[in-house]
Design a protein that fits this description.
It holds the Pfam family Caps_synth. This protein is of the alpha+beta class. The protein contains four helices and eight strands, in the order ββββαβαβααββ. The N and C termini lie far apart (about 55 Å).
C-alpha cells in the first residue's frame, strides 16, 4: 500500500510534485495478530481513551500521594516527563490508560529543582538510612548517572509507599507473620523451578 504526500516535497530548491513517484511514501500493511487462547481484549469502558494531551496533563499533575493509598506506580526520569522520548511517554501513557480507572495513581518522579514531582517531595533525600552518601552529597556522576540515580530513588519510594517490580529478593522474606505478601513470577521447566528476580507487587494479607 502507498500513500501520497499532500504537499510538494522540497529537496534543496527543487519542489517535487506531490503526485510524482518520488513523493510517494511506501507503508507496510497493518499486521493483525490472533489473541492467544485464554486472553481477551480489555473492554473499552475499562480504559482511559482520552487524547494524549489530556492524559499528559493528568500525568504531570497527579493526585497528592498518601501512604494510606497503596495503589501507586512510580516511574523515574531525571529531567521530568516532559523531556521523555516519545516511546517512553507512550509506555507511561499505556500504564495510565489501563490502570487509572482501576484506582491506580501514576507518578513520574524527577530531580528537577522546584518540580512538585521532585523526589525530595516524596521522601527525605538527606536521610542516610535511605540514600548513600554519594547521592546525598551530589556525587553520583559518570555517563550513566541518571540510571544509577533511578536505582537509588526506587528503594526509598517503595519502602515508604509499597513494593514494585524491581526489588531483588535475596533470602527469606520473613517473618512469616508479616502482613505483607510479595508476588513474583516463576519460570517453570521440567524438573526445574526457576525463580525470577522481578517482584511484581505486594498486598496486605
Amino acid at each position: 500500500m502507498s500513500v501520497l504526500v499532500s504537499d510538494p516535497v522540497r529537496a534543496g530548491e527543487t519542489a517535487i510534485p506531490a503526485s510524482s513517484k518520488e513523493a510517494q511514501v511506501q507503508t507496510l500493511p497493518v499486521l493483525e495478530y490472533p489473541i492467544p487462547s485464554g486472553c481477551h481484549a480489555i473492554p473499552a469502558e475499562e480504559l482511559d481513551l482520552r487524547p494524549d494531551a489530556e492524559i499528559d496533563e493528568d500525568i504531570v499533575n497527579p493526585k497528592p500521594i498518601s501512604t494510606e493509598w497503596q495503589k501507586n506506580i512510580f516511574f523515574f526520569w531525571h529531567s521530568g516527563y516532559e523531556t521523555m522520548h516519545p516511546y517512553t511517554k507512550r509506555n507511561v501513557r499505556a500504564h495510565y490508560r489501563r490502570l487509572a480507572k482501576k484506582g491506580w495513581n501514576i507518578y513520574v518522579i524527577n530531580r528537577v529543582e522546584g518540580s512538585p514531582l521532585n523526589i525530595a517531595e516524596f521522601v527525605d533525600v538527606t536521610d542516610p538510612e535511605l540514600f548513600p552518601k554519594a547521592y546525598i552529597d551530589g556525587r553520583v556522576g559518570g555517563e550513566f548517572a541518571p540510571q544509577h540515580t533511578s536505582d537509588l530513588v526506587r528503594w526509598p519510594l517503595l519502602r515508604k509507599y509499597g513494593v514494585g517490580h524491581h526489588l531483588l529478593q535475596l533470602g527469606s522474606r520473613g517473618p512469616p507473620r508479616s502482613r505483607q505478601l510479595l508476588l513474583r513470577l516463576a519460570a517453570q521447566q521440567p524438573a526445574l523451578l526457576a525463580r525470577t528476580q522481578a517482584v511484581v507487587g505486594a498486598v496486605e494479607r
